[in-house]
Design brief:
four-stranded antiparallel β-sheet, 4 domains, 45% helix, Pdz3 Domain, Multidrug efflux transporter AcrB transmembrane fold
Length: 510
């Protein structure tokens, strides 16, 4: 008998098609060639000359990169000795000219074949357990530290981050930071500094970083008040100067006027300036000194120009370095200093190898379990169509969960995988309920029997939903992945896959 496609089955087909688009993209990601840079040491020559995490290298000089083996072979051929060589790395949207005796200090992987994002325990990266130096933090203080750190990492453009408060059995509070694809050295550099910014005239502080304190706003992404001013060549390369405007609060502006009113006037070959400079300090280290023009003596001004520079082997490298330095300084001024000096208690690198092996084993075990259940269903109900319907429906639920996870860019970690497995088990149980109800009590119509089955399924759904909601916040969010994937799975089951499966069984039993 030919199976008629009802509107519920058509809805399942359409949702599956959209989920496949979400997972593989358009055009599909598995057609892309090249290698993906997953990490670059921020103090390396590769970083200075323009290679960045997230770039896809498609060609080295005139040789195309198909996969990781091509990239490794080409680098071995390009750097056979200790003499400096020029190599051009072509990415999807730029080219990087690389001068060095050694291959670039980068970590690369094959381009992901899907848009599914894996969490730290599957994709690899760095994890740091952090506490305040010489201070025991309360729960409220840890929450404040987590918020500021998250804002700072987001402002720096760091992706795939997880910053949560944790505590041990003795009641000590810590902050746990996980960054996928980042080296421990980079993570240490980001977190070990307090980021305290101060502007001083002599020994007096004029203003400090942070919008909630002395700074009302920072000029960013506006060429009229922020940008690279000039680039010049030096003996060994290039340097570029940047400048951007900082808008002060009324209190900070009055303090600036009060301090400058007491300064004397100096006449120099460059013009007339006050006797003291405006010194800018970052973590107590002097980063710049600005001359104060005579027109600002005793004047209440809410605008201050902050400048700096970046260097590089080429003008393009110097320009990029200046942009990055400006962005870093703007970020610190926006987010303010961390409330405490931090101490990294534990810093780990998590290898993705074991995670990928575990993921492969889970997938194989899950498929084997589905096949085994389908075979049992066949022997129990003696219908190959019912077994195939159950198998297709269970696989559909997995595709829907992965498609929605790709759409919302949710990182699949081990708890998330556990949630998918729990959804498969729940789905099979509920499909067996539909099969049993369809077989029993022939005095009722098939429609009435399936309606009774759905009353049981809906009761189980709302019970599970209520039980899962607290897991979104329990354990400092460590079980959030389990809750998210399970809620997605059981909701998709009730709204999409169970009705479609019921229509399949109805057509089979009619």
């Amino acid at each position: 008998m030919k199976l008629k496609l009802t509107w519920r089955i058509w809805m399942l087909i359409i949702v599956l098609a959209l989920c496949f688009l979400s997972i593989f993209g358009m055009p599909p990601t598995f057609f892309q060639k090249g290698v993906l840079i997953t990490s670059v040491d921020s103090n390396s020559t590769a970083f200075e000359q323009g290679l960045r995490q997230g770039q896809i290298i498609i060609r080295v000089d005139n040789e195309e990169i198909e996969n990781l083996d091509d990239f490794s072979r080409i680098l071995q051929d390009k750097f056979p000795s200790n003499s400096s060589v020029k190599t051009i790395f072509y990415t999807q949207d730029s080219e990087v000219i690389f001068f060095s005796k050694f291959p670039p200090n980068v970590t690369v992987l094959e381009i992901p074949k899907t848009n599914i994002k894996l969490g730290l325990d599957l994709a690899g990266g760095s994890r740091a357990l952090i506490q305040a130096q010489e201070k025991e933090l309360s729960q409220e203080e840890v929450n404040e530290l987590v918020e500021i750190t998250s804002n700072r990492l987001n402002e720096f453009g760091i992706s795939d981050i997880n910053v949560v408060p944790v505590s041990d059995l003795t009641g000590n509070h810590y902050m746990l930071v996980e960054v996928a694809g980042t080296t421990p050295k980079d993570l240490h550099e980001l977190l070990s500094k307090q980021g305290k910014f101060e502007a001083k005239i002599g020994n007096e502080t004029v203003f400090i970083g942070g919008r909630d304190k002395d700074i009302t706003s920072i000029c960013r992404n506006d060429a009229t008040c922020a940008g690279i001013e000039s680039c010049q060549q030096t003996g060994e390369g290039f340097f570029c100067n940047f400048r951007f405007t900082v808008y002060l609060s009324e209190e900070a502006a009055k303090k600036h006027a009060e301090i400058t009113s007491r300064l004397e006037l100096n006449v120099t070959s460059q013009g007339k300036y006050l006797s003291e400079k405006l010194d800018l300090y970052l973590d107590d280290a002097l980063v710049d000194s600005l001359l104060i023009s005579e027109g600002l003596k005793g004047v209440v001004t809410s605008q201050i120009s902050v400048s700096g520079s970046g260097t590089g082997a080429t003008q393009e490298d110097a320009y990029k370095s200046a942009e990055e330095s400006m962005h870093k300084l703007q970020t610190i001024l926006i987010t303010g200093s961390l409330p405490y000096k931090l101490e990294i208690v534990k810093l780990d690198t998590i290898s993705p190898i074991l995670g990928k092996e575990f993921l492969r084993s889970i997938l194989l075990a899950g498929l084997a379990a589905l096949l085994a259940v389908s075979i049992i269903i066949f022997f129990r109900y003696k219908k190959i169509k019912s077994s195939m319907a159950l198998l297709i429906t269970s696989l559909s639920e997995i595709v829907i969960i992965l498609g929605i996870a790709s759409l919302i860019e949710w990182n699949l970690d081990l708890p998330s995988i556990a949630g998918i497995l729990a959804t498969i088990g729940t789905g099979i149980d509920q499909q067996i309920i539909i099969l049993d109800e369809a077989k029993q009590d022939r005095s009722l119509s098939i429609k009435q029997r399936l309606k009774r089955a759905f009353a049981i399924i809906l009761g189980a759904y709302f019970t599970a939903l209520v039980a899962l909601l607290p897991l979104l916040w329990a354990g400092a969010g460590l079980l959030k992945g389990f809750a998210i994937t399970t809620i997605i799975g059981i909701t998709a089951g009730v709204l999409i896959t169970r009705p479609a499966f019921a229509d399949m069984i109805k057509r089979i039993e009619d």
